[in-house]
Amino acid sequence: MKKWIIGLLLIIVGVQLSFAQDSAIEEEIKNLSKTKWQWMADKNVDKLASLFHDKSKFVHMSGTWKKDEELDIIKTGSIWYKKADVHDVAVEIVDDVVVLWNRITLNAVVRGNDAKNEFTVTEVYKKDADGWKLLALTFSTVRDTHSIKH
After folding, report:
1. Model pTM score
2. Are 51 and 133 in contact (CB under 8 A)?
3. Taken in order 83, 124, 96, 23, is the CA torsion positive or negative?
4. pLDDT of 19-45, one tens digit each?
5. What is the pLDDT of residue 147?
């Protein structure tokens, strides 16, 4: 009976530690995503270059491209992500991959024209030896009443 109780306690402690670790990762990724939006607004391509995985892809309303093109678009101001107002965030963790969904209102300048759009943005991060790297970022146009299921 004593071994059974000790075993049960070890399982409970293990589960609690797992939840605590997931919560810490979730907060880390939420903060990283928030910081990424600021780097995009600031056109800080050096910071973004270190965050974006070399094989990352970016899906926009007008096309899909790779890391170097996204960085060039940001650097030249072809798209200036002036401000992303984040309304909701959901995170799912699967091993060393994290998927984050942001529901945002994006104020941007696109090819010289002001634009304001509602999006759900899907971000996929993978942990490697240098930390978390963004693998994919996809903008999905939504209504302002859209909600993310948690």
Report:
1. 0.82
2. yes
3. positive
4. 456 789 999 999 999 999 999 999 999
5. 74
